[in-house]
User: Which sequence fits this backbone?
């Protein structure tokens, strides 16, 4: 897989800003047990390697003790790698994009999941044509945009102009 062009630290900061960071287990808006930066404990949980790397005996330790920020960022990096692989496999064109637009798409994939992100057919067609104005419009013309509000506006603006603008 080709490397992404952005710095992981920039994406981590962006995702924490958009998703939030919770070191204790909580229920998300759908009632799913979650921890860290949106780690779904019901569907993804923690692998044996992640539990060991974080110094936990089992998942019950996570529920009892929660995470440190370092552990949360470790899990987030693992989640980012999964999203990058899924995006690369489904849309290899992502590697031809600049770092800002790559971060936009990883952020969207992290938030929506690939099945829902793949439904943005007009956005993807525009991206394939390097028509980022249309891609941004298509991002905003979605139920997702109404659900996430300012996050969608910020990501669409970055998609359109290839720069991060202040909120």
Assistant:
């Amino acid at each position: 897989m080709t490397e992404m062009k952005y710095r992981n630290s920039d994406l981590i900061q962006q995702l924490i800003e958009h998703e939030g960071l919770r070191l204790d287990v909580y229920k998300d808006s759908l009632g799913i047990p979650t921890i860290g930066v949106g780690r779904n404990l019901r569907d993804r949980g923690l692998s044996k390697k992640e539990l060991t790397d974080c110094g936990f005996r089992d998942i019950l330790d996570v529920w009892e003790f929660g995470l440190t920020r370092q552990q949360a960022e470790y899990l987030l990096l693992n989640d980012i790698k999964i999203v990058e692989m899924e995006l690369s496999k489904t849309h290899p064109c992502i590697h031809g994009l600049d770092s800002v637009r790559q971060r936009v798409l990883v952020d969207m994939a992290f938030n929506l999941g690939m099945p829902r992100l793949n439904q943005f057919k007009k956005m993807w067609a525009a991206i394939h044509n390097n028509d980022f104005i249309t891609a941004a419009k298509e991002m905003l013309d979605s139920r997702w945009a109404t659900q996430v509000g300012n996050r969608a506006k910020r990501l669409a603006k970055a998609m359109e102009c290839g720069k991060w603008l202040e909120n």
About this structure: The chain has one domain: 8-161. The mean pLDDT is 95. The domain at 8-161 is CATH 1.10.530.40 (Lysozyme). The chain has ten helices and three strands.
